Amino acid sequence: MSAAIRSLALVALLGQLSCASSFIDPTGRLTSLEEIQHKYTQLVRWGELRRAALFVEPDVVEEFLSYQPYFEDIRITDVDEEEVALDPSEDTASVTVTYHAYSYRTLEEKRFIETQKWTRYDGVKNVWMVRPELAQIVEAFHTTTQ
């Protein structure tokens, strides 16, 4: 088989695989969640908790926003996001995120793992909300900065 024919066969196979993947998630839940989750995580990284709160479950927004003053002294230097684990039978998903952060007061870098729990509320618009677990970051630096 010539190289040109092999290349065409590979392109055809990749095209079929990409079409097949759209049938796995025809509503676009995964794509929508990945975009929202990444945007939320980046807002947290840069200490933009007020903007990130738009993605937070309403019953925990107040607690989430109470961390804002602490993020004035905390800087997240890097974020590692694992693959989204979407439950195909439900409108829930989880993502494990590792934050690398330090406090201006101590300059000691620490690593924190957050398991973000996401829930989809509007199937048509793919509205996803998160239950964040940022308390460990604040508590670790808050105890060392007082």
CA gyration radius, whole angstroms: 20 Å
The secondary structure category is alpha+beta
User: Helix count, per DSSP?
Assistant: 5
Ends apart, CA distance between termini = 71 Å
CATH class: Alpha Beta
Say how many strands there are.
Answer: 5
Uncertain stretches of 5 or more adjacent residues: 7-11, 13-23
Order of helices and strands: HHHHEEEEEH
Shape: globular
- As a percent range, the share of helical residues equals 40-55%
Oligomer: single chain
Mean pLDDT comes to 80
Strand content: 25-35%
How is this structure best described in words?
- With 146 residues, the protein is α+β, with helices and mostly antiparallel strands.
- Helix content is 40%, strand content 29%.
- 19% of the residues are buried.
Brief rundown of the structure:
The protein is of the alpha+beta class and 146 residues long. 40% of the residues lie in helices and 29% in strands. The longest helix has 22 residues, at 3-24.
Give the topology, please.
Layout: H1 3-24, H2 29-45, H3 49-52, H4 61-65, E1 74-81, E2 85-87, E3 92-103, E4 109-122, E5 127-131, H5 135-145
Antiparallel strand pairs: 1-3, 2-3, 3-4, 4-5
